[in-house]
Amino acid sequence: MTHERRAFLRHPANAPIQIFPQQQVNHLPMTDISHGGLAFKSDVFLEEGTVLKICIPHVNPPFEASCIVRWQRKLDDDNGFEIGVMFLDEQTRFRLRMVEQVCHIMQYRQQLQEQGRELSFQQAASEWIDAHAADFGD
What we know:
Layout: H1 2-5, E1 10-12, E2 16-20, E3 28-34, E4 37-42, E5 51-56, E6 63-74, E7 81-87, H2 90-114, H3 121-132
Antiparallel strand pairs: 1-3, 2-3, 2-5, 3-4, 4-7, 5-6, 6-7
């Protein structure tokens, strides 16, 4: 299972996600995102092989796709579990790659805001792409 978990380079992400059919939690913190899937924190243990629908509502257009739980681990701080999921088709994986880029841009924009520099999303995207697009390839 470790081999599958490390099949793609993972990137940190902090955009909240929604999972369905779990109804008692509205937004869960995403811990990382990669070409093949993503991981998130949950108070609920999800069995390997469970099929979920993931929604990332804070990107435009919102990202929605079906995925399957590939791994889970108990968090050391006793605050639930980290759950890793894999998306089921190549088209979804490509769309996730675009979401991954948006998450990087959002994080870049937030870092600039913390430094006192206000940019629109489009301005931040333009700067981030100029600086990092070459490193963002497959």
